[in-house]
Amino acid sequence: MLPEALRPLGDLARNLRWSWHPDTQEVFRAVDPDLWMSTGGDPLQMLFQVSPERLDVLARDRRFVRNLELVRNDLTEYLTGERWYQTWAANNAQAPEAIGYFSAEFGISKVLPQYSGGLGILAGDHLKAASDLGVPLIGVGLLYHHGYFIQSLNTSGWQQERYPLLDPNELPITLLTDADGSPVMIKIDVQGLLVHAQLWVASVGRVPLVLMDTNLEINNERERLITDKLYGGGTDHRLAQEVLLGIGGVRAIREFCRVTGHALPTVFHANEGHAVFMGLERIRERMINENETFDSAVEQVRAGMLFTTHTPVPAGIDRFGMDQVRSQFASFAPLPIDRILGLGAENFPGGDPSRFNMAVMGLRLSQRANGVSELHGEVSRQMFQPLWPGFDVSEVPIGSVTNGVHGHTWMHPELQKILESPLDDAEGILDGWDWNALDRVDDTDIWTLKRQMRGQMISMARERLAASAAARGMTSDWVATALNPHTLTIGFARRGASYKRLTLMLSQPDRLKALLNDPETPIQIVIAGKAHPADDIGKGLIQEMVQFADQEDVRGKIVFLPDYDISLAKPLYPGCDVWLNNPLRPLEACGTSGMKAAMNMAFNLSIRDGWWDEWYDPEYGWAIPSMELLGNQAERDAAEAEALYELIEREIVPMFYTRDANGIPLAWVAMMRSTLSGLGPKVRATRMVRDYVTEYYAPSAASAARVADNGTAEELAAWKQKVRAAWPGVEVVRVESRLPETVEVGSSHVIEATVRLNGLAPADVAVELVSGEVDATDELRNVQISRFELAAGSDPAAESVLFTLTDVSKAAGLIGYTVRVVPDNPLLASMAEMGLAAVAE
Ligand SMILES: *Cc1c(COP(=O)(O)O)cnc(C)c1O
């Protein structure tokens, strides 16, 4: 029990905002500096362990108490004040009152290890940035008893996994209870069994994160193990977890809102396919509570649902057996099981009829969907094009929001201090940071700061290397001099997935050794990453890397740091000068580690994949050419590795070691300035969350509100049914006064199209001219879509209806075109939405 004067410590420890708020961390450090160190900077653990005597002293320490009150008041102001969203919403009638954000993992802080890698860190950064902006998000996920594994290495460098058991009572989460103190429970049917889950709430600044937990006495052994660990076990286990996340998640949000009085979400965001069963539960609610039909409920749910896909490879998509899903949802009344199965069916060319595809269900149940970088949006449109037959890849209704990273979490605190601005947002100042602040800092100070960052990273690395050497039974005398704070430092850290090509840099070992051992201009490399426990290939790559680094002639110059997690990552990015990423393009959907590096004035040395394809600029780093056209993977690896070495040898090393009289690398420092001012504001997660709000959340809320209007969902469902039924008979019968093959800019042409509407009204469709320049491969480029109008005097009820269009060419040269009919309704978010198009022969 804390003394009265120190009560605010408990409030501060139970809101995870401390994890990105240096002033709050300082308060905790002052409580007991030794304990702060020994708990690894975990406020709650520290409060459990601190002695009553120490607390007594602090309670009487006027300076400590006054400062504590200041910091507590700052939290209150952060939690209750008006932020960006409140101002924005005041001018946007459709701003949602709440948004449900579902994710299988959340990486918020090392003290809540509920993530495995990039997806989780992104979800954590999304919540934090939403909190900073005042966006009313409610996060939903699972509470894993074991979190993700802790990685260590054996003597031969093979990855070892350990799953420490977490005690929820010692985590910064609070059990959700009713007014009488009893835990709030949700119940769900998992494979025919009634499973109970209790709900824990983590406070991520202003954003509540509700975590479901089945580790309860009332459940049997198998049911308890549903939330044992992230992505553990076989597909039955995984299906159970996803049913809990999706179906349970909706119930958990309802309960949370009932107990706390929080507004209910009108927009539901599925972060990756794991969560999309949420759509089924929302359909069920509407069928039962509002007495709606399945189709009408689908329209209602779709309008307010957003699906974000994170993988550019079909193999990365979550799929279950049809039979597995059939038995799970056989008695999910009143939803007809065949309709459920239809949502995830791969009934398109190349699909597998025995599989239930979570991404496909996500796309069918969400009126809006996005990838996580522009390139990934393109790749996703290509990958899912079979769901929209008749439409060009560019028309597939999947957009993109490029990921971002949470500045307060990932930028070095000293650099944050330099950027912090008391001024309102204006040119160059955004969300409280002045991105041009380095203009007022001289080169020497910037360079000194970078050396300090390198030094801090090296202290962390040496501690970890010493512990790892001891655990592997190896000598550790070399650790004290491992890495050098003055040496050009290259970082590489990521999951051990094979497309990330951890060992590409080893392809010419002697050349790499020469770079590491150069007496005048050496480089050093810091590496980290975990392989999935079931991925022996990934573990083999890690072993190859560790064995290379174990060699005496490079030891301490290239190092592998075990157990890549948030606490390792935070000092790692600032400590690097160059961040290396060499995935097989285009398999990196976005990648965020390079963004965190850029935010700390490190340069990217990367294949132009994910976000780097979009924002690469020679001012911010180097592009390793991607040899996608080389069919053979070995050749491609060799060529890309060659280019990588060349860039390091010819450009990076000379630039880093070219110094002025004071020892400052002027060109390098100039690039540090441009990287921070140019990339910083783009890669920040507040930019990402704003994009989600304006491009997705608000339009979704508007769509949901429109179909919620008195019977509109039902009308829309009936209209879609009518259109689908009529569609096989809809046809472009004839197109007249065809365009000439080559045209002049500005020339105009009248085109007439005769269309058979098969009982539909002209207003049910759009007749469109799709035109563009024909390229060498006969594909249309710079596609333009123009709309025909009903011809004057044409009888809309006739068997064939005449439409006309006066087309004014915007480009000259060889043009190609088609005429098509597509369904049209103001409630559709895109012309391609229904995947129906009747194209002229
Ligand atoms: C940022 C981060 C990742 C994701 O990095 P990618 O570049 O997207 O692979 C994974 N793990 C940790 C600990 C991170 O901080």
UniProtKB/TrEMBL annotation:
Record's keyword terms, sorted: Allosteric enzyme, Carbohydrate metabolism, Glycosyltransferase, Pyridoxal phosphate, Transferase
EC number, UniProt record: 2.4.1.1
Transmembrane annotation, as ranges: none
GO biological process: carbohydrate metabolic process
Cofactor: pyridoxal 5'-phosphate
Residues bearing the modification N6-(pyridoxal phosphate)lysine: K596
PANTHER family listed in its UniProt record: GLYCOGEN PHOSPHORYLASE
Family: Belongs to the glycogen phosphorylase family.
Protein name (record): glycogen phosphorylase
